[in-house]
TrEMBL record:
This is TonB-dependent receptor. It is a multi-pass membrane protein. GO terms for biological process: siderophore transmembrane transport. Residues 311-739 form the TonB-dependent receptor-like beta-barrel domain. GO terms for cellular component: cell outer membrane. Residues 116-135 are annotated as: Disordered. Residues 1-22 form the signal peptide. GO terms for molecular function: metal ion binding; siderophore uptake transmembrane transporter activity. It comes from Epilithonimonas vandammei. Keywords: Cell outer membrane, Membrane, Receptor, Signal, TonB box, Transmembrane, Transmembrane beta strand, Transport. Its main location: membrane. InterPro entries: Beta-barrel_TonB, Beta-barrel_TonB_sf, HMA_dom_sf, TonB-dep_rcpt-like. It is found in: Cell outer membrane.
Amino acid sequence: MNYLSRKLMFSVLLVCSIFSFAQTVTEQFLVKGNCNMCKERIEKTAIKAGAQTANWTAENQTLTMTLDESKVKCDDILKQIAEVGHDNEKYKAPEDAYKNLPACCLYTKSSDFEKPNNTLEHHSDSDKKTNQIEGVKLTREKEATAISKKEAGLIFNISSKELLKAACCNLSESFETNATVDVSFSNAVTGTKQLKMLGLDQKYTLLTKEQLPEIRGLASAYGLNFIPGKWIGGIQLTKGGSTVVNGYESITGQINTELLKTKDDDKKSETEINLFSDNNGRVEANVTSTSPISDKWTQSVLLHGNGTFGDTDMNDDGFLDRPKGSQLNVAYLLNYNDLENSGFASHFGINYLKDERTAGQIGFNKRITQEDQSLYGVGIDISRFQLWNKTGYVFKGKPYQSLGWMNQLTYHQQDSFFGLRNYFGKETSYYSNLIFESIIGNTNNKYKVGASFLYDKYDEDYLLDNYKRTETVPGLFAEYTLTGEKFTLVTGARVDFHNLAGTQFTPRMNFKYDLTPKTIFRISAGRGFRTANIFAESQAYFASNRQIQIINNGGEIYGLKPEIAWNYGVSLQQEFKLFGRKSTVLADFFRTDFQNQVVTDLDESARKILFYNLEGKSFANSFQTQWDFQPVKNLEFRIAYKYYDVALDYLSGLKKVPFMAKHRGFANLAYSTNKTEKGRFWSFDMTLNLVGKQRLPNTKSNPAEFQLADYSPSYATLNAQISRNFSEKIRVYLGGENLTGYQQKVAILDAGNPFGNYFDGGVVYAPIMKQNFYVGVDFKF
């Protein structure tokens, strides 16, 4: 073959290959569906209709497919998908085809295909040969906080977008713009924040990280500071009884935190540096890096450091309003995902934390023993190490059947003193949970069965007393999910064999009924039990001269019996259009009844803290109504009202629980400008909290000058933040907390005589700091 012939043949082949390549396109379309059965049906139909590849995801309701346009048209494929029962943006499914779908596949139909937060925009991509391929790119504006419409339980999904509305330096500050969780200071000396939900203290909410036990045991008092806000990829908040799969300790609900990971659908390396500082001497630095290692392996490196160096005393009582000190926090996450081929996925994590804090009177020197100086001081040194793994397997050809195994080892040590009181604690904890999930007949009938094991070893020293115990809790559980055309029922039970608390039976139920596609009714009921860690959970009162007294009731844990409670809830969720825009109203009522409770009594004497088991009744009624609305583009408005009725039988009779406002109001306003092509935009956020009067502990036995009123005054706080994105890579934000400047007038009783009988820093009902201003910057690479 001569040179001319070879050149001619090469040219013909090149033209043919370019023409052939130009006919192959990648397209994305919105297709409605619910579950794995829908995924299999949609993809199979697309391939059968002529698509070369097809992939449908339930989360985005998106079908991505490649096809040769010279052989088949997109319209033909979408038409056949509609004929098997699935609405899409081109064709609606015939009614008989839709009704013939299995019940689990019956998605919500509407008069026209809904795309409330979706836009389709055409774009061009270039390959190495610079050939242009026309495609469709799907972009979806993710809600900052979304109420799940599919789950039987009342679940709020809080995204990283919500966390950007406030400073969010750690988990305790992640709920400042959320109406469901109440955030408050626990005492006036350590400046620690605590959460409350459904009118009850944080200890009654199951707090998990990656669905593994996190803030419990000795970490109860300060654990919210152990998860930096910049590490958080998302939060799932469940009100009321949660699933039995995650354990028996949930009474008022569950808050699960997910750490940052590389997204499966966009495996790109991303590193972010965050720098933060406020006007009261607090500085912080975060480095988060997520990156793929290979097609199946990804990793996350999370670094956090903070320090508080200023002497802040806004109420001029001679005590620091918040402690000085530093924290170093390091985590490494390694993820393996080969679900499509082998069916295996695994997640490994390791975390080390060192936190040192000093509080008390200004001028106190931690290096000098308390006996050798006249100033009152508090020192809290915490070391914490965690190692965990979660491994899952999806059975080949059975996407509905899986096996998962979770394991976590935790070591926690706290060395602390509060004036002349010492408290030392060590906890070694191991948790394991094995879960098998499958169906009965079809995906309308799903079930989970499994076994768990919890090991907790405690060693505590308080003053001259030592308290040691080991808890071992093997458990079995089963959960069944029934899905109908308009309802979902999740019912489950677990039995746990506690070596100290005896055998415990924990049933739970969640039921959802769609009255209409936009009106959802839910009910829930369940039981929970827990063992109280009275010293770790009551450190808010250690900065006082109250004497601790335990009234033994014959139990195996501090002489006390475990806490047992029932929780019942009902809610109504209504979506509607107002001025052509989405609007949601949610109303819920929950009641918690304690069968047994460890009572922390501050009323019997102003100089004592009594711990004893409940004799009588203890209940908490919680009502909340919330309205989310977007009156105009880019403007989000959320208002809420909460009513609490919480009381229990103390030794002195039935009383309202202290530090719980009967009435609370909430309003959040968020606005952002349109994003430019270069990623520039402004964001404005404002949150108002109205807190009604709260009952205060009885201090009548104190001299008149150290007595408090029966109730606190009502007050309001206002937080605001302005941020500017200069590009997709750089963001600067400026904010202020407690802009109303409200401050509790007397945060510490007898602050001038901290070693006297009447000193008490644990009666805190309002902010102890006035306005606090901060500035931060984010860099992404």
